[in-house]
Please model this.
Amino acid sequence: MNDLSVNIAGMTFKNPVTTASGTFGYGEEFLDFLDPGQLGGIFVKAVTGKNREGNNYPRMAETTGGMLNSVGLQNKGVDIFCRDIYPKIKTFDTHIIVNVSGSTVEEYVEVSERINELEKIPAIELNISCPNVKLGGMAFGTMPDMAKEVTIAVRKVYKKILMVKLSPNVTHITEIAKAVVDGGADVITLINTLLGMAIDAERRRPVLSTITGGLSGPAIKPVALRMVWQVHKAVPVPVIGLGGIMNATDAIEFILAGASAVQIGTANFIDPRVGLKIIDGLGQYLERHQISTIKELIGALKTE
Amino acid sequence: MNDLSVNIAGMTFKNPVTTASGTFGYGEEFLDFLDPGQLGGIFVKAVTGKNREGNNYPRMAETTGGMLNSVGLQNKGVDIFCRDIYPKIKTFDTHIIVNVSGSTVEEYVEVSERINELEKIPAIELNISCPNVKLGGMAFGTMPDMAKEVTIAVRKVYKKILMVKLSPNVTHITEIAKAVVDGGADVITLINTLLGMAIDAERRRPVLSTITGGLSGPAIKPVALRMVWQVHKAVPVPVIGLGGIMNATDAIEFILAGASAVQIGTANFIDPRVGLKIIDGLGQYLERHQISTIKELIGALKTE
Amino acid sequence: MIFKKNIADLTVVRNTRFNNRYFMLDLQAEEPFSVILPGQFVQVLVAGSPSTFLRRPFSIHSVDFASRRLRLLIQIKGEGTRHLSLLTEGAKLNVIYPLGNSFSLPVTKKVLLVGGGCGVAPLLFLAQFLNQQHIQPVILIGFRTRSEMFEIEEYSKFGQLLITTDDGTAGEKGLVVDHSLFQKERLDFGKIYCCGPVPMMQSVARIAQWHKVDCEVSLENTMACGFGACLCCITPTDRGNERVCMEGPVFNTKRLKWL
Amino acid sequence: MIFKKNIADLTVVRNTRFNNRYFMLDLQAEEPFSVILPGQFVQVLVAGSPSTFLRRPFSIHSVDFASRRLRLLIQIKGEGTRHLSLLTEGAKLNVIYPLGNSFSLPVTKKVLLVGGGCGVAPLLFLAQFLNQQHIQPVILIGFRTRSEMFEIEEYSKFGQLLITTDDGTAGEKGLVVDHSLFQKERLDFGKIYCCGPVPMMQSVARIAQWHKVDCEVSLENTMACGFGACLCCITPTDRGNERVCMEGPVFNTKRLKWL
Ligand SMILES: Cc1cc2nc3c(=O)[nH]c(=O)nc-3n(C[C@H](O)[C@H](O)[C@H](O)COP(=O)(O)OP(=O)(O)OC[C@H]3O[C@@H](n4cnc5c(N)ncnc54)[C@H](O)[C@@H]3O)c2cc1C
Ligand SMILES: Cc1cc2nc3c(=O)[nH]c(=O)nc-3n(C[C@H](O)[C@H](O)[C@H](O)COP(=O)(O)OP(=O)(O)OC[C@H]3O[C@@H](n4cnc5c(N)ncnc54)[C@H](O)[C@@H]3O)c2cc1C
Ligand SMILES: Cc1cc2nc3c(=O)[nH]c(=O)nc-3n(C[C@H](O)[C@H](O)[C@H](O)COP(=O)(O)O)c2cc1C
Ligand SMILES: Cc1cc2nc3c(=O)[nH]c(=O)nc-3n(C[C@H](O)[C@H](O)[C@H](O)COP(=O)(O)O)c2cc1C
Ligand code: FES
Ligand code: FES
Model:
């Protein structure tokens, strides 16, 4: 009873609960709170070609039911990732998936090629949807042609499972999804953050140093669910869903809408153990509804 | 001291606080709670060519910091509006602006022509952004060409102030804004609702009869603020801002981002007197900051 | 008669817990009430509950005009009602009242009230109101089990009380529609008022139709505003989609499309 | 030494109101504390406040290891802190603790502690800790006015207390940086620890730099997580952007770029 495992593009996840890139550090920050081996997988923080300092402070604003961030891909670059970080995290008993970002097609390709060599990394997630960088990032994710181009280029050098993470800041999410599937994506993850803004009325200034930032948290869940459902119907590849998941019920909703797995993002900040609670809750849901495997729920929304 | 009046395309509004279409009925539902004459203006419920029954029940789902609706332009049609409703509301001592909707360019034109004849209606708001109808509606608002086409067509027959209300469900809001300004729009209002979805996990069904619906409320405020700011910078016409405004601070934020006036939507459901409270709050803000007229705050965000 | 909707902070003067699902809030107003009729409802702001954004609608269970009190009978469903169930004496509750139409007066004196679940909420008020018109209704109420029964004596004051329980621990065993009253050849009433779960109201409406008895039901719906502004709460009727919060919540079943 | 971050429901055992802006929460843990050092902070979940989505960070004001209690000194700023100010005895508070680095030990025994506003929060703990290392610090605290002073006796237990008030109603008149201590030719300390508003910390850091005295400050920042996961709380340092919640909140001013 209660089989929580799912298969995504040939990989078996012990359960569909993973953590979203940029919200779980490299997993190490959570070791006091949980054993990463209990999670279905971990999507680590974006890795770029070179060291990036990210954007200036302030980088965060709280909003109703959510938050804006403008971290801007701060990371030490792919060399340091491979040399210093990878050895520490490769022993986690779960899938470690690297979020690959860049400003140019070449940078995406370069980073993907390097990550391809890391034995314990079974997949990458191409982040063509970061709203917080001036060059590249989201631009790739809002134009089908560019999205396809970068996917094709990375597909050539990356031999394992290629996931592409889409931006919700588009008119037709299914067009972008089809473009990256055409380009060779094995899996689609969505959504990244919605582009938003916060203003400090008293100081008459933007709250974020970058003026705009990415909106995450339960506020965006309705948009995320809609897009997961649209993309699940539109493309033949598995979808990993995220956006505002706070508890097991939210996760079930994404799975019903068509997600083969889910990522937990902002919720980790509020409760670093939330992933484990969601795994428990999924088991209870299966039991209550007498369903033997969670696979049965994927895309099982009844819309007649 | 404390001049709250604003000018928009030659109209003077006694204050910048108006109510959003579809959230204030025809004003009549609020007569027990306030005198509409205290408001800067009222945007009444969408009017279409013919009677529309709207979508099936259920039409509403609560979400974190917001709600989804799929009312779908239920209204009695332009004939009944002109004959029965207009005479009752034309005596309100404030600007009454009619939200014009349709499925075809012809329908928009037909309705606008009829409303043009109504002496006490100084402006219309073209709703090219309703996500809840199968035909027309949002489709017009997501493609610059179609947005421009419908604006041009209505501009030909509508002699008073033409406002166009934009959909946020697009990649480049400024492109749509420019297109409708090219088409002859005097004012831009934004945003309409974000396309979202809610799922009842226990019943494994969508909550709304239409599966997807329009997300409103404070959850969407960051997206709305961002778009108002972008559009204000991109086009030479005044902008009316809305999306999640719950209190005077929110209203100030929109004004700083570039809105010449604001609309209050979902907040009316929770507090039917919220408009008056916001007007009070704006006055207090001016006093606290020793600003003599709210016009000084329009677009006054300091971003250096 | 002055019909006017108010928004006011009412004070919780009592919170009575009947069992693990039902509780009653007694709310005190500062100002005297204007007209409030049975079948009307209120919209309650649930402050301090992070997941409760919109107001919550509840039928007016009863009104004491002299002491300016109104009572709500509430079933715990989700976060909003759970939050309300924890309110203690002295707490303030922001309420919009009264909303919606009301039950219409019967033309005969032979009247049946049928309720089940939290659908019983407006029935006591209605029974009391009918009494003032010198009508003694028959009141049929369905409970799950004896231990979940409440306010039995209250109802008995205003008419003849009949009971069903799902498990037969009190009154007749079964659902309200199984009651022997409905098994008779003739259903000797001029009017039936019914509130409760939709399937129950549908069954009662069908029986009423069969016996050609006029029947009014009180509908629920998902409401954003509660005062006619949003058009979220419609139900299909013979005049098209009508608002449950304005043209309802009480509808004559003849006019509804859900039979 | 075991450094481990915990999440636990702590119980409010006291809520002391000092004045209309400041209050102190005494929190009781079930489990014994592991290592907690002065300068560390906690992340508090504010349940039941609709507008408070993320946790709120507060410095650890003091710890009683024996009775498993920790105290937070909180200034009311917005919704979250207002909500916390209303908590009563017995309330549960979900807290992640302890977070961040801590003040480092001084190499000399001549130590100055400078605090103002809610920046005084971690100073008592630090003073107590220094005492355990047989160091009697000089403690300089700035208040707005005499009536807003609190915990004066507490500080006096651990060192020599100096005070400034903006209006001169107690101690020297002016800001902390105006204190006569800083007017001397030589600032005879091996280390200065400073927390308070950023402009104050910058002034003190500048004075320290001038006198070539080592200076540590405790920074604040907008934090989403508080435990290093989000990279929202950075401050520019000589090693690039560092996380205030992990590499800080305590920084040697030599390393900061904000002078
Ligand atoms: C006119 C009217 C009168 C009502 N009178 C009463 C009354 O007197 N006593 C009483 O206990 N309840 C009454 N209700 C129902 C009551 O409004 C809901 O139970 C309540 O809003 C649930 O709030 P919640 O936050 O606890 O639950 P939520 O967390 O909002 O929802 C819990 C569950 O209840 C369902 N639900 C929520 N609201 C409604 C609704 N309006 N209709 C149907 N299902 C819903 C949800 O889908 C969900 O499955 C009335 C409703 C209406 C429209
Ligand atoms: C490491 C650290 C330790 C802290 N220690 C203490 C302490 O011991 N005692 C204490 O009273 N406060 C302390 N603070 C500040 C405290 O976290 C904020 O005052 C609190 O989060 C405000 O919450 P609120 O919901 O009341 O205000 P909000 O409604 O969130 O904000 C009210 C106002 O305060 C500003 N603000 C909110 N959070 C911060 C922040 N983190 N930094 C700067 N400005 C902010 C907002 O911009 C706004 O103008 C500390 C902050 C940090 C980062
Ligand atoms: C602080 C922060 C940093 C993020 N960094 C990244 C990143 O590096 N790469 C990426 O693809 N997404 C990043 N995201 C987006 C999240 O992975 C996720 O798509 C988004 O937050 C929506 O999910 P949520 O609502 O569950 O948080 C970040 C989000 C946050 C809040
Ligand atoms: C119930 C409901 C009905 C609406 N009907 C209309 C409509 O008829 N025409 C229109 O242009 N916008 C309509 N809207 C959109 C609002 O006018 C507004 O753009 C949106 O709700 C965002 O503002 P808010 O967050 O303040 O509610 C409707 C919104 C709601 C919630
Ligand atoms: S709930 Fe808004 S019209 Fe009925
Ligand atoms: S607050 Fe998240 S890294 Fe510091």
Observations:
- The longest helix of chain B spans residues 274-288.
